[in-house]
Specification:
Helix content: over 70%
Number of strands: 0
Number of helices: 5
Distance between the termini: 23 Å
Radius of gyration: 18 Å
Strand content: under 5%
Largest sheet: none
Oligomer: single chain
Shape: elongated
Number of domains: 1
């Protein structure tokens, strides 16, 4: 039990959110920034190896964070904190925001690893543009947009559930 009386460890952003959600919100900010930087590196600077390793590193860090998040949510839930009281029900708007967020989160979990795995299998080492680029570029663009929408909808859920 935390100082607030809610299950789990209190976050550090001054909201009702648990620690892992504060970490995940900031991690998603970092992911979006590093993702944009990585796309710039490959598209403008043509640093293909740097892009490759940045994407792999981002994927590992985000996967680890999401696994820790899922464990925490399974152990401690989130609805009491969103309701602001033990045994409370999360606001309907928070539940709706969560469902919208999950649409993007689930598709990102499919698209991003698929993009990375196909790239690892189909680009030479070190990576350079080739026949797989015709598939990789639109798939990667879709995955990146999906990741950004996952972050935005996650932040909206966070605000509605734990700040408002």
């Amino acid at each position: 039990m935390s100082k607030s009386g809610f299950p789990g460890i209190d976050g550090f952003l001054g909201t009702r959110a648990p620690l892992i959600l504060d970490v995940l919100c900031l991690a998603m900010l970092a992911v979006v920034i590093v993702l944009a930087w990585s796309v710039y590196q490959v598209k403008v600077r043509r640093r293909f190896s740097l892009h490759k390793w940045t994407q792999i590193t981002l994927a590992v860090i985000l996967l680890t964070t999401v696994i820790l998040f899922e464990i925490d949510i399974r152990l401690h839930g989130w609805e009491d904190r969103a309701a602001g009281q033990i045994g409370g029900h999360a606001p309907a708007a928070a539940v709706k925001a969560l469902y919208v967020h999950l649409i993007f989160a689930v598709t990102t979990v499919i698209l991003w690893p698929t993009t990375i795995i196909l790239a690892l299998r189909n680009f030479p080492n070190p990576p350079v543009p080739g026949p797989h680029s015709r598939i990789h570029v639109p798939l990667a663009r879709t995955a990146a947009i999906d990741m950004v929408l996952t972050a935005i909808t996650g932040w909206i859920f966070y605000y509605i559930a734990f700040v408002k």
